[in-house]
Structures
1.
Amino acid sequence: MPSTNAEIAQRLSGVHDEWMMTDAERSAVHSMLTTLKPQVAIEVGVYRAGSLAILAVHCQKVYALDIDPFCEATYASRFPNIEFITGPS
Ligand SMILES: C[S@@+](CC[C@H](N)C(=O)[O-])C[C@H]1O[C@@H](n2cnc3c(N)ncnc32)[C@H](O)[C@@H]1O
């Protein structure tokens, strides 16, 4: 939960730093994954791994694609069930 004024203002704007979706969009994704229970997912565009983190919880295997090598270098060790691919979609 946000605790500082800056965090609260940011949350009220609807977009979180690590997650480039509003809370409502995040809730919709969570509901969809809970209902569909996909075994495999492909994420095109990782950024700071906000949506990827929830995919990693709900899917057995995730392929994560981003053109920015920062994503694979930073998050590959954090998610054992995610295979990172660095390059253009
Ligand atoms: C909007 S952000 C992704 C947000 C993330 N899914 C989330 O929910 O936090 C877009 C990402 O797409 C990546 N990207 C942009 N153009 C790309 C391309 N042609 N191929 C692969 N990745 C690309 C950027 O590097 C960036 O990390």
2.
Amino acid sequence: MVFWDIVRVFFPKVVLVALALFAFRLVVLTLLEKRNPAHVLVYREVLPKDILVTFVIGFGVFPISNFLNRWIAYEPELPRLVMELPLAIRIVLYLLIGDLGHYWVHRLMHTRHFWRTHKWHHAPTYMYWLAGVRASVTQVTLVNLPYIAAGAFLAFSPWWIFWAIILKNTAQNDFMHFNRWWGNRWLEWFIVTPRYHHIHHSDNPDHYNSNLAALFPIWDHLFGTYVDPDTVQKPLRFGIGESVPPIRLFIGI
Ligand SMILES: [Zn+2]
Ligand SMILES: [Zn+2]
């Protein structure tokens, strides 16, 4: 009994679920990528480091950012008319407005003064499902702002919405960094694909500040930051070409 009490204290249900999900992603996604990777990668060299980074993000960056967001996030109260819309419509509005805000926060982080908040995300010189896990405290705090504001559409929603959003965010991040040249022009009118986001990480100056969208590519088309993946020269190379002290990458300063 004492043993299980200790397990329960140190591994609450949410941590156990996260660990199980991570093990599933580790096996299934790595195997899927290895069938036909977009870029050659020695997984045993990058995985141990990135698993450590994942723990730093989960137990360091996320709690600190959540704490900061409590002080600076804005949660509007929406009119009753909006709140009476069907849940499916409110979910679509949440995704559209949150993603539009994410696009502009991302664009801001690619400007000279805010680049330091986002460097860590672009630091890896390789691309695969776990490469996009890096995000500084300042990046996560800033990116959370539009989603918290858009979260007003989901007030009074069923309990599972919270878990669905966490799952969607995880799947989205895994997918856009996936080490396969997946995607086509038709699909890329609707959703960001791996090859679409790989261009965003490219170290080729022609690709700087391009394909900034996180979920809906329409923002890149509307705001002039779209680069067609069919027109780029492969293979792409990644990274920021400088070494920055880890603590500065972590905080984003
Ligand atoms: Zn970026
Ligand atoms: Zn990325």
